[in-house]
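Ligand-bound model needed. NSP.
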Amino acid sequence: MKWSEATWQESQAIYSAIINLPFIQEMTAGTLEVTKFQFYLKQDALYLTYFGSVLAAIAAKLADPKHALAYLGYAEQAIVVERVLHESFFKQYAIADYGEMQPSCHHYCHYLRAVVGFESVEVAAAATLPCFWIYGEVGRYIKDRVQQPNNPYQAWVDTYAAADFNTSVTEAIAICDALAENASEATREQMTKAFLRAAYFEYDFWLAAQTQVSWTPL
Ligand SMILES: Cc1ncc(CN)c(N)n1
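Prediction:
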């Protein structure tokens, strides 16, 4: 079995917890409160900047130039393409600024930075894979279930259910499998741990938006 298949199986409890979050269910129904989506968007715009720089740092460390080019493309996609979408949502939802990075986003971004700074490139690539794979799956999950013709979140859903996003997902999975194939058993285990940790952070990111978890003023 490929590393990605075994790891995806291990992540199923986290994936179903994500799908069952009220945030995802209400987005699917089109009933998600706007304030929760606004909180999510602001945090996500901040996240994407960090995510883009982590992807560029991975590209710099990858030995195979084809893999490096792919990660440079994902970095561009995160910073340019996704942020353009966010900025159009910012207008639609009357968001003036990004605001402060709140605990869940902070934890996730700094975890990714620590992994890319201090772990092997294989582990760093595995840590960024849930950002692709889970979003692709969630996008498809919601798209298949949207019933309301004018779901206010349709543009968001369309981004992550889109064919080009899914091409990146498939390609990133294949690169991680190629890295895993040439890695030691110990590195493969670290890759799996990193994937599962980042998958948990994906869960926590939506949970935090749902409950709008912010720094406690002291
Ligand atoms: C938190 C998060 N994770 C992943 C993605 C998809 N790149 C995103 N926009 N935001």
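The chain has one domain: 10-211.
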